[in-house]
Amino acid sequence: MTDIDHAVARRRLPVITGILVLTALAILVALGTWQLQRLHWKQGLLADIAARQAAAPVPLADIEAMAASGGDIEYRKVTAIGRYINNKERHFFATWRGQTGFYVYTPLELADGRILFVNRGFVPYENKEPEMRMQGQLTDQQTVTGLARAKLAGKPSWLVPDNDIAKNIFYWKDLDVMAESVGLEKARVVPFFVDADSTPNPAGLPIGGVTQVDLPNDHLQYALTWYGLAAVLVTVVAISWFRKEVKTPPQ
Questions:
Q1: Are 51 and 72 in contact (CB under 8 A)?
Q2: DSSP assignment of 127-188
Q3: How far apart are CA 183 and CA 88, in angstroms?
Q4: Distances from the Cα of 145 to the Cα of 60, 139, 216, angstroms
Q5: What is the assigned CATH class of domain 76-196?
Q6: Where are the transmembrane segments (predicted)?
Q7: What's the sign of the alpha-carbon dihedral 23, 29, 35, 40?
Q8: Residues 6+ apart with CB under 8 A from 241
Q9: Fewer CB within 10 Å: C terminus or N terminus of the chain?
Q10: Which helix (H) or strand (E) holds 112?
Q11: Helix (H), strand (E) at residue 124
């Protein structure tokens, strides 16, 4: 390589470096801006959920119509009337305020014969079987108020264990299997759940009002991280440029 080639290569190097730096800076700023957009979206979603939970309950038919039209029914307050089929309850493995146990999902038979699965609430592990909490096994017609919860399309993650139908232990809320496992026809089952509110049950079990809105909102932290990295990159480049200028003797 001749001296001319070396000179050309030396001139190209700062240009290539500059392009790489600008590209990296653009990516970091774009990621930070995207996280800010996600932050605004998440704040709006959380505010919407809070508004739904604070609203007056609507009849079950209204939520059914919304679900049938493809609307978002999650966390909307609803009221349903029927009789619990206590001998067909299903148990969802859960923890509540640090205690291990189960959420009790009991079919509620409506006036028209259809079935709505109601999450009546939490019972400790030792109270899994109905005979350990007989006072809470309501038999008369009940008016249930709670939050509508959408049916899951499938297993949330491969990390979640398979449901143990034989032991009546569910690790994810498979509505179809819950119904099938107790001999209920799918066509009769309302295609969503209701989480009962905190209205006390006799002898205190199940404990209602267990709905948890678990939507992490770390987008501001992520945005600051990306913007911080962009600032660090600019600082490093500026220091490097300054040192080069200082070391370069005047011509």
A1: no
A2: G-SGGGSGGG---S-EEEEEEEEEPPSS-S-TTSPPPBTTTTBBSS--HHHHHHHTT--GGG
A3: 9
A4: 10, 17, 27
A5: mainly beta
A6: 12-34, 224-242
A7: negative
A8: none
A9: C
A10: none
A11: strand 115-124
| Helices 219-247 and 3-54: angle between axes, nearest 10 degrees | 160
Report the C-alpha gap between 34 and 17 in whole angstroms: 26
Q: What's the rounded Cα separation, in Å, for the pair 37 and 21?
A: 24
**Contact between residue 118 and residue 194 where contact means Cβ atoms under 8 Å apart:** yes
What are the pLDDT digits (tens) for 67-98?
Answer: 999 999 999 999 999 999 999 999 999 999 99
Q: CA nearest 85: which of 67, 105, 99, 61?
A: 105
- 213: region left, alpha or beta (phi > 0 left; psi from -120 to 50 alpha): beta
Residue 105 sits at the vertex; the CA angle it makes with 185 and 138, to the nearest 5 degrees, is 100
Per-residue tokens: 101: 């146990």
Instruction: Give the domain ranges of the chain.
Output: 15-44+216-239, 76-196
List the Cα angle 82/75/129 in 5-degree steps: 50
- The total number of residues shown for the chain amounts to 251
Owner of token pair 């350990």: 132
The set of residues, in sequence order, having a beta carbon less than 8 Å from that of 221 and lying 6+ positions away, is: none
pTM passes above 0.85? no
